[in-house]
Each structure stands twice: as C-alpha cells, then as structure tokens.
Amino acid sequence: MADHLAICPGTYDPITLGHLDVVERSSAIFDRVMIAVSERSRNKEPWFTASERIALAEESVAHLSNVTVQGFNALIVNFAREVGATAIVKGLRAISDFDYEFQMAQFNKQLADDIETVYLPASAQYSFLSSSGVREVAAWGGSVDAWVPPHVAVALSERLARTGGTAH
C-alpha cells in the first residue's frame, strides 16, 4: 500500500486555529501531512519572516506525529512533486474561497494531473477566521487568544511591541 503525503500550502502569517483544524483533520485522512509555508507572498509583505512562520507552525503541530512543516518557493505542484505528495489540501470558508480555489485547482490539474486537490470545509467555529483578520485585530490591540495557539498570540504581541504597534 502506498504512503500518501498531502500538503497544506499557505502563507500562515500567522497560523490560526482554523489552519490547525484543517491540518488535524487531514492528518486523520492521509498517512503524512506537510504544512507547506510559502516563503514569499504575491499579495503582501508578511508580518513574520518565513523562518518565523515555519517555527510557529512547527510548534503548533508538535502534537501530531505524522505532520511536518517545510518552506517552499515554487509552483505548488512542482513542490508537491519534489516532496512526493499526491494531494494538495485546501480549507474552504466560503463560496468566495471556492471560486478562487477551484480556479487554482484547474490550473494545477493542467500542470500536474497526477496530483489531486482536496477541499475540507471550515469547521463552523472557524468559518470566518483568516490570518489577515487576526492581524487586523491584533494591530488594533484586540485579543486574538480565541483564534490562534497561545505561542502565536505571544509572537503577535512581541511583533507589535518591536514595531511600535505597527505591522512593519
């Protein structure tokens, strides 16, 4: 029987409980799961460096023996092939997520028809949750404790203290 590796790609800036919900559920479906942390963002300057985001993710999944974390800087299907993944797992919060992710899945299928895209709907309590929302609340001094692991909340506070309450 083949060993099935799935990757969960994203910027994880920062990793949230919604991300972890998808990763934990994926770890029950696949033999191995890799959180694939994009080392750069095409849309914005991340608050945390790639190495910081990787470290926060590693600490967040330390309790999951079949989950690893690795940075990447390539087309996701090329990275998937490089690490031997057979599936890309994406969490969906809303119809707008599906519209975008469906389009990306079609591109990926054209580029690598041997790699499947699997969608997991967000659990109800995380259906609104996004890293950008967490960053916005944190930047305005609000508590993000209900949406991120404790060490991530501390990292956000430290980041804002170092930068005088701004993102950069």
Question: Any overview of this molecule?
Answer:
With 168 residues, the chain is α/β, with parallel strands linked by helices. The chain has one domain: HUPs (Rossmann fold), CATH 3.40.50.620. The protein contains six helices and five strands. The chain has helices at 17-29, 50-60, 76-83, 95-111, 131-139, 150-162; strands at residues 5-10, 32-38, 67-72, 87-92, 116-121. It has a five-stranded parallel β-sheet, sandwiched between helices. The mean pLDDT is 93.
Shape: globular
Provide a count of the helices.
Answer: 6
Summing up helix and strand content along with how strands pair, one would put the structural category as alpha/beta
Biggest sheet strand order reads 3-2-1-4-5
What percentage of amino acids are in beta strands?
A: 15-25%
Give the CATH class.
Alpha Beta
The arrangement of helices and strands along the chain is EHEHEHEHEHH
Provide the CATH topology.
Rossmann fold
Q: Tell me about the largest β-sheet.
A: 5 strands, parallel
Helix share, percent? 40-55%
Give a quick set of tags describing it.
168 residues, alpha/beta, Rossmann fold, five-stranded parallel beta sheet, 6 helices
Précis, in short:
The chain has one domain (5-127): Rossmann fold. 42% of the residues lie in helices and 18% in strands. The mean pLDDT is 93.
Please give the structural blueprint:
Blueprint: E1 5-10, H1 17-29, E2 32-38, H2 50-60, E3 67-72, H3 76-83, E4 87-92, H4 95-111, E5 116-121, H5 131-139, H6 150-162
Parallel strand pairs: 1-2, 1-4, 2-3, 4-5
